[in-house]
Write a structure and sequence with these properties.
The chain is an alpha/beta fold. The chain has 9 helices and 14 strands. Bound molecules: N,N,N-trimethyl-histidine (AVJ). The site of N,N,N-trimethyl-histidine (AVJ) has 11 residues, from β12.
Length: 324
């Protein structure tokens, strides 16, 4: 019976996205060299990210989960969704709060989790289907960064969800383009729930991205293993230090890998060698932090109207509900 409530389909890319090889060629031609953060998430990287979420320093996941638990009832009662569509759903652990609120209010929306990883989608659906006998799951396999044009468009009121503060991985320009594209799919009555991390004392931010157990450092270095595998490279991850800095002017955490000594790296699949000087940095991730004002301004720039702002008492994290 559980299987009857589970369907899975691929969402074709709406536009051509650069391959890993193209991203490396382009990113390594820049100074500092850069790598897109999406390559962190191979099987090991996803596992490491899960472990980071349980460190005492990394507050976003547990703060957002608590906030969602507190505000789910209010969100669900305002939107009364017939479909919940989640971009980058991962384990769907936090989204579970929304289904509990639906159940308590006699609503039975279907769930459309959208993620790159089919195995993760299966595992997430399994748990949700077990917990909610009324739920049907329409899993969507694909990359939301490749566009949303081919996302299935179920009839009825939809709640789009983008959690975790992942919006912060995008530059303001990329973010507004992404939010605008989402806005373009939305109809009257639809809503969008966005999770975003807030600005706070730099030492708290830096600790969150440089935990004492070294998990974030390992997560950061793992991107070099991903490149080695994909491009037959000989990066030695241990020849790079993990560095997390809060850039106050740009209100963002910057994660770097810093060469511990002069070295040359061979990427055989690209037929290229890259020299790194002692202390040279690769920018592997930005994670923007928002004020209440900068967050609503970004939504408005994408023609989305914030209708409710939920935040924790400590103002560590925000959930904003917006409408077209
Ligand atoms: C999953 C993108 C929200 O930016 O906080 C965690 C990724 N990087 N620790 C974030 C991450 C380092 C995370 N996001």
């Amino acid at each position: 019976r559980k299987l009857e409530r589970f369907k899975c389909q691929a969402v074709p890319a709406a536009r051509v996205v650069p391959t890993l090889a193209e991203d490396v060629l382009q990113g390594f031609a820049r100074r500092p060299r850069v790598l897109p953060p999406k390559y962190f998430y191979d099987a090991l990287g996803s596992e490491l990210f899960d472990q980071i979420c349980d460190t005492p320093e990394y507050y976003p996941t547990r703060t957002e989960a608590r906030l969602l638990d507190q505000s789910a009832h209010s969100i669900i009662c305002q939107v009364k969704p017939e479909h919940i569509i989640e971009l980058g759903s991962g384990t769907s652990r936090k989204t579970a709060h929304l289904f509990e609120a639906c159940e308590a209010n006699g609503l039975e929306p279907s769930y459309w989790p959208f993620d790159v990883c089919e195995e993760v989608l299966h595992a997430a659906a399994e748990a949700l289907l077990e917990a909610h006998p009324w739920l049907s799951v329409q899993a969507l396999i694909g990359d939301y960064s490749a566009g949303l044009a081919h996302l299935p468009q179920p009839a009825g009121r939809r709640l789009f969800v983008f959690l975790g503060g992942t919006i912060g991985n995008l530059t303001p320009e990329e973010s507004i383009a992404f939010l605008s594209e989402l806005r373009g799919l939305m109809r009257e009555g639809d809503a969008f729930l966005l999770g975003a991390d807030r600005t706070k004392a730099p030492r708290l931010l830096q600790a969150a991205y440089d935990d004492a157990s070294g998990l974030t450092a390992e997560f950061n270095r793992n991107v070099l293993n991903v490149i080695n595998r994909a491009l037959r490279g000989d990066f030695n991850p241990h020849a790079f230090d993990h560095l997390a800095l809060y850039n106050e002017a740009l209100q963002r955490i910057e994660m770097y890998l810093v060469a511990r000594h002069d070295q040359e790296v061979h990427l055989m699949a690209l037929e290229r060698r890259y020299g790194f000087l002692h202390g040279e940095r690769i920018l592997t991730e930005i994670s923007r932090k928002f004020t209440a004002e900068s967050l609503t301004a970004e939504l408005r720039a994408a023609r989305l109207n914030p209708i409710r702002h939920y935040q924790t008492e400590d103002q560590y994290f925000s959930l904003v509900l917006a409408q077209p």
